[in-house]
Here is the input.
Amino acid sequence: MELAKGVLVERLRCGPAQAAQQLALLAERAGATQLQLAVEIINEVAGDELTAAPVVADEPGGATVIRLRTAQSAALQADDTQSVAQSLFDHALAPLGATAVAIWAAGADSSLTLAGQAGFGAGEAGGGGTCRPVCRRRPPGAVERDTVWLTDLAEAGLPSIGGGLPGRVAVPAGTGGRITGVLEICWPEPLQPQSLSVHKQVEALAELCAATLDVITPGRQDHHLTAPSELVDLADGLLDPTLVLGPELSPDGTIADFRVHHVNGRFVDIAGRPRAAVVGKLLLEAYPLAAAEGNLFDKVEHVHATGEPFRADRMTLAALVDEVPVTVTANVSITRHGVLVLVVWRVQDEAARLASLLQHAQRLGRVGGFEEDLRSGQVMWNSQLYSLYGRDGGEPAVPLAEIADHAHPDDVPSLNGFLYNVLHYHRPASAAFRLQRADGVTRHVRVIAEPVLDSQGTLLAVRGAYQDVSAQHWTEVALSATQDQLAITAHEAAERNKLTLQLQQVIMPPTHPTIEAFGLRVAVRYRPAEQEELVGGDWYDAVVLPTKQILVSVGDIAGHGIKGATGMVVLRNALRGLAATGAGPAQLLTWLNLVAHHLSDNIVATAICGLYDPHTRVLRWARAGHLPPLLIRNGTAEFLPMLRGVLLGALAEATYEEGEVQLELGDTLLLYTDGLVERRDVPLDECLEHLRSEVRRPWPNLDELLDHLLDSSESNTDDDTCVVGVELA
Here is the structure.
């Protein structure tokens, strides 16, 4: 019931007292006891074996799960395996007709030690009915990984405790695929075939036993384990390469992989990597080919599950070197030590392995080796060099002195100098040239050679290597071309950004002459983005219309550069022309939305449009997804309401809500773009509140207020900034 209350605390976000009241209320409404309802709640969230256990035919509905949960609760609170055995006996086994239970712990050598028991007579469990681990026997199912049911223990001829209890079942208990022990249940009579319900229940009870038998805390991820110092010392004392592996569990509790916790000082990686590159990795991450059927991973998993040691005189181990498989034959030993596994291998042919690595390295590096005996004239090439020259293995090799005959004519002088240094001065030398093959293919090659001298300084032989550097050469050519193209592109981008900035500054100068008409003063401040490539489409307008009304507007085009600047010109000029019709702000934005959606290149923008009537001192306004204006009156500052209106260009057809505000003498109204207030790391509401606090104190005039807002802006979005101030004097 306490577990169920804890679930309610988490689900309902309430306290323990409220959870208890809720449990009682729900039980009353459901017509059930609080215990029954608590079990139902736990089953809902557990999803374990106990949830799936069917009921016993002789028990009322729900009674089976209740007693199993009661046994589980007692087992979780138990301090040792003996208490777990007593809990299972008292709460779970009586309805099944069983009269005794034994819990056996599995050792590394597959032996079993009695760890807990209940229901046996005095002396049957090793003396006085106590649970001292004095009995090391193999009860039924000790060497099996599946549940074993025995009708009569005597007929089976298997040893165990409790000779007068013939009916037996032995169920493996373990976690993460590793068997940690066996649960043995005894009946007083020969055991008849049992129902599916009983089978499910004994399997669920075995799962309860595993938690107390395993040295790993349930639910703990194995890669957090630390290998015991004794096991580390054992590995370090061995003369062969050794790995200490720990299991990695998947979310469903099965073995997913093994992690390398430690390697000893003798460890030599198959792929030639340093020890630090292997320690801490998953086994299948370090050695992907170990997952092949019957290979290393299968053996490690079997040893971890059963505890049975594995040894093989000849086993193939494989690793990848730059996606190329390298295999070796080794003697392998695998043993389990607690929850960890010790893997020891001894590579049988170290010289062959190194030769194989060298061969792969030469192939991957496109390197061909040669050696030339100058006394006999014999020239020896490896297969890579024949491939580089495009020749079959049966064709004669080319002597070093004839290398110029196979080179591009322009490279002959440098090759002559190379040959003179090696053959005449007896000095190591190198040269790069274009190799022209008989099949018409040209390869860019680097040749390196060194002389072999006797004690008298006489030249005996020359050995060296050719390396095909064609890919590197063409990469350098392509890189050079790319750098040239990038330089051109950067220059074009700089010119385009410069043009965009000039266009913007012509249309949207940083300051606008203050408009004074009919007692209304309109001042503007505009600051383009600091980075030229981010110059955007913020725009503003303030003009006296033929109707003697004053139009004030602010907008922000989505996008930067030429597209943003040209979009700003389209909308600003379109709004000015539409305003001459005498329509109201909402109608103007409706028409402007049609312009943005249909008559432009997919412009999306926010905007505010206001019309001031000097006769009534009323400002009618509408917004299209823009931040609300800020009204300053008598030392207070408040934002105008958020009128409905979507972004311009977002929908083919849209309507906009219109509002109005009665201006009083001394009022100041601020229209602005998001570049004035927005910060990447601060919520927008806090940014707007910061703006409101900045304008509360009195200011000598409108110009000083606008200058202060630009200077004190904490925006960090690298966007344009525009602010329009409207003051009624």
The radius of gyration is 43 Å. The chain is about 35% helix and 30% strand.
